[in-house]
Every structure is written in structure tokens, then in C-alpha cells.
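Just scan this pair:

***
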Amino acid sequence: MDLSRKSDEEILSVANPIMDNLMDASTAIDYERHIRDFTDRLKGVLSKERFEWICRDYQSTKGFFAKREFVAVFRRTESVAVVWKQSFTRLPGDFVAEMVLVQQDGKYLVDHVMVF
């Protein structure tokens, strides 16, 4: 079934484990594990050096990822965007975690992801 036709719960059953891995891998600064569910397009955008710099930067200023709370799923023709409210261990306040998932060759892949 097309991802955009699934319920929020079905989408989250795919999205949450992928986002958990992305956050765990960035905490460990493990590039290969971090990009394992990326589309080829996204792999081409994020170099290992840039990834390592981003991880060191957010860890030194914000700390590590803490509580994540689901906000919404936005359905598109070819993808879904999932948005969470995200917190960090060092810096107070609410941040946004977002991920765009696409389906390619029967697999769900990340085509965009950001925490801001």
C-alpha cells in the first residue's frame, strides 16, 4: 500500500524506528548507520565530514536528543512528512524534528530529515 494512504499509526510504525536510528547514530557519530535508510539523493547531499561537524556542533550546544512527541503527518502524492516536537538534554525549549519518507523498490527511505 502507498505510504500516503496509511493511517498515522501505520506511518509512525515505519517512521519512529527510522528516526530512532537516525538520532542514535548521530549521537554515536556513526555515519554509515545514520545514512542506511537514506535515498541516493540524500546520501549525495550529506558527506561524512559534514555529518560529523553537524553532530559535534549540536552536541556541544544543545546536548543530546531527549523526548520526542508526535505532532502531525503531512501526506503528499509521492511522500509523507512526519513532524515531532523534539527536546534536547542541555538546551531548554521546543525544537522541530521532521522527516520526509518515500517508498522506493518496496522500501521506505528518508529523502529529507532535519532538527531545528
User: Anything to note?
Assistant: The first strand starts at residue 65 and ends at 75.
